[in-house]
Amino acid sequence: MERKSTKKIKVGNIYIGGDSPISVQSMTNTKTCDIENTIDQLKRLEDAGCDIIRMSVTTKEDALAIDKYKQQTKMPIIADIQFDYKIALEAINSGIDGLRINPGNMGNKEKIKEIVNACKKNQLSIRLGVNSGSLNKEFLNKFNGVNEYSMVESAMEQVKILEEVDFYDIKISLKASSVPLTISSYKLISERVDYPLHLGVTEAGTSFRGTIKSSVGIGSLLAMGIGDTIRVSLTSDPVEEVKVGKEILKSLGLLKEGLEFISCPTCGRTNIDLISLAKEVERRLEHIKKPLKVAVMGCAVNGPGEAREADIGIAGGDGEGLIFKKGIIIKKVPEENLLEELLKEIEKL
C-alpha cells in the first residue's frame, strides 16, 4: 500500500510523518504527580514497545514532575494541556518533548505566541486534537451537526491559529467514537493538508469492543495510506493499547518485529487441546523482539501446508503432533511434549 507523503516533524528522538515508521502511542492513566506509580507504568509501557507516551498535565505539580520522568524513560513524553497556557510553559521548561493542545482554549493571540516561541526555542511539535464531542457550535450549525465537515473545519480553525503565528510543526487528530465518522473525517482532512495525522478512535470501549473498533477504524485508514502515528484508546491497562496498536501494524505489514502468530480456528478434525496450546505458546513467546512467524495448527493433514510461510510451527494429530519449519516437517512428538519441543527449536533459530 502506498502511504501519503506528509510533513516530517519530531517528538523527542522519534520522527513522525514523511518516510518515518508509523509509531505507536499511549497515555498514562496514573495521576501525573504520583511519581512512584507513574514510573512503574512508564517502565511497563516501554517494555511493551510503546514509542511515545502522553501524560495529562493539569497542575504545576504535574509539570514539575516531568523532569523526573525524563530521567526514567527513553520514550518521548507529550504533555496534554487543556486550558492553562502557563501550565504549557511550565511543562516546556520541565523538558517535555511535545504538546497536545487546543489553541483556541489557550487564550488570546499573545498567549499562543508565548507557547509557540517556547516550542520553537526547544524544537517541539504540537498536536492539535479535535474531538467529535466538543466541536465549535459555529461549525455544528453551519454543517448541520457532527459530521466529517464540522470535524475538519474545527481542526482547520485550530491549524489556522498556529499558522498565523508562524508555527508549522503540527500534527492533527480528529477522533470520534464512531468508526465511520472517524474514517470519513481523516479521509477528508488528508485531502486538505500535508501535516502528519495521529489516528485513533476515541472512547472506543473496553478491551474487547475497543480493540475491534480501533482495529477497524485505524486499520482501514492505514490501508488507504493515511496516518503517521496511532493510539488505541481502551478502557483498560495502557499496556494493552500498545499491544493492540502493534498488532494492527503487523497485520498490515507495517511493522516487522516481534511475534507474528498464526493459529487455526479448530474444527472436528482437531484431536489435541489446540485452544489451550495456542494460548500458552502465545504467552511464552510474548517477549520475542526479533521478527518471528509462529503457527499453531490443529490438523496434521493441512497444517504444515496452510502455514508454510511460518518460520516454525506445530500441527496436531491424535495425541501427538508435528513440528515444521517453512512447511517442512522436522519431527513428530507426543502431545504433552509439543510446547517444550517447539520452544527448543525456536531457541535454535
Here the CATH topology of the largest domain equals TIM Barrel
Model regions low in confidence, pLDDT < 50 over at least 5 residues: none
Number of strands: 15
Separation of termini?
Answer: 30 Å
Mean pLDDT over the residues: 92
The CATH class assignment of the largest domain is: Alpha Beta
Counting helices, strands and paired strands, the structural category is: alpha/beta
Tell me which CATH architecture of the largest domain applies here. Alpha-Beta Barrel
In which range does the helix fraction lie?
Answer: 25-40%
Overall radius of gyration: 23 Å
What is the overall number of helices?
Answer: 12
* Major β-sheet strand ordering: 8-7-6-5-4-3-10-9
What is the makeup of the main sheet?
Answer: 8 strands, parallel
